[in-house]
Write a structure and sequence with these properties.
Number of helices: 4
Membrane topology: Multi-pass membrane protein
Family: Belongs to the drug/metabolite transporter (DMT) superfamily. Small multidrug resistance (SMR) (TC 2.A.7.1) family. Gdx/SugE subfamily.
Keywords: Cell membrane, Membrane, Transmembrane, Transmembrane helix, Transport
Distance between the termini: 14 Å
Low-confidence stretches: none
Transmembrane segments: 27-46, 58-78, 84-103
Mean pLDDT: 94
Largest sheet: none
Subcellular location: Cell membrane
Radius of gyration: 15 Å
Length: 109
C-alpha cells in the first residue's frame, strides 16, 4: 500500500507543478488554489508512505516521478522543447528510480 500511495503522491506532484506554472507566480487565483491543494495531497501521501518506506527511498522516488512527469507534461501540454539530450536525461532519471527500487534495503523500514 505504501508504494501505491507513493506513486499517487508522485502523480499529484506532477499536477501541482503544472498548476504552479499556470498560476503565473501565484498571481492567478484558481491555479494558485489548485497548486496548494494538490501540494497538500501530495505531501500527505508522501508522508503516509514514509511510515513504511525508508525516507531516502520514498523521497527519491517521489521527486523522480514528479521530475520525469513534469518533463513529459511540459513537452506534451506546454510545447516545451524536446531533444535527444533532454530525453536521455529523463531516461537516466527513470533508470535511477528503477535501481533505487531494486536496491537491497530500499523497500522496507
Amino acid at each position: 500500500m505504501a508504494w501505491i500511495s507513493l506513486l499517487i503522491a508522485g502523480l499529484f506532484e506532477i499536477v501541482w507543478a503544472y498548476f504552479m506554472k499556470q498560476s503565473e507566480g501565484f498571481t492567478r487565483l484558481w491555479p494558485s488554489v489548485a497548486t496548494i491543494g494538490f501540494m497538500a495531497i501530495s505531501f500527505a501521501l508522501l508522508s503516509w508512505s514514509m511510515k513504511t518506506l525508508p525516507m531516502g527511498t520514498a523521497y527519491v522516488m517521489w521527486t523522480g516521478i514528479g521530475a520525469v512527469g513534469a518533463f513529459l507534461v511540459g513537452v506534451v501540454l506546454l510545447g516545451e522543447q524536446v531533444n535527444a539530450m533532454r530525453i536521455l536525461a529523463a531516461v537516466l532519471v527513470v533508470s535511477g528510480l528503477v535501481l533505487f527500487r531494486l536496491a537491497p534495503g530500499g523497500n522496507a523500514h
